[in-house]
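Form 7-S
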Amino acid sequence: MGRERTSNNHLISGAIIIVLLAVIFLLPSYGWGLRTFLSPEPSGSANAGGNGTSTDAQTLSAENDALKAQLAELQVVSSQLPTSSVGVVRAMVYSRYPMNFRNELLVSAGSDSGVTTGAAVVFQGMLIGQVRTVFKEESLVQTIFDDSLKMPVRIGSAGTNGLLQGGSYPIVTSVANTATVVPGDIVYSAAAGIPYALPIAQVVATSTSPDSLFQQTTLLFPYDINNVETVLIMK
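Output:
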């Protein structure tokens, strides 16, 4: 009985081997799955997943970087722009590092967004310049730190007339000698084509002009133009 049982076991084992070989060679797809099952790749192998895993990891990394960039942009917008956007166009300021020109800004809104030449540009409620050139999707803004900018303004609650002279350190000139202007007075817009009474700067001190015919003022600005990343363009 023992020999007969052993012989039967050998016959069964041989039959199983023959069937497995037939599956592997005659049905490749099933054979491949079977071979993978019988000889699984070690889970710690550096090549596990092949190029597919590497590609997936690169894709996820790129998507993650894109989301981080979008989050950074939203945080900037949230911190620098007011909640209301009625009658204005929101725009991001393109970086010009390492050439941080104070006299002009390139922003991410143009004629497609309804931006027009001469429009007032505001940062945190303060007038910082005017649109000088409009492109399809961008605009060039002349800031009040441009030497060529000259703009009529008023000063303080008395509405004293003056002329804003742009430059690295803007001043207000042509202020009447008889006018009372004191430190702390606010300089605000009074030029045609710009919304009236947009704040521009604060008076720090007054002095007599070189020709002794007028007063002039030095100004304080509560922002650094090089750190401005978002603006509102008035329609």
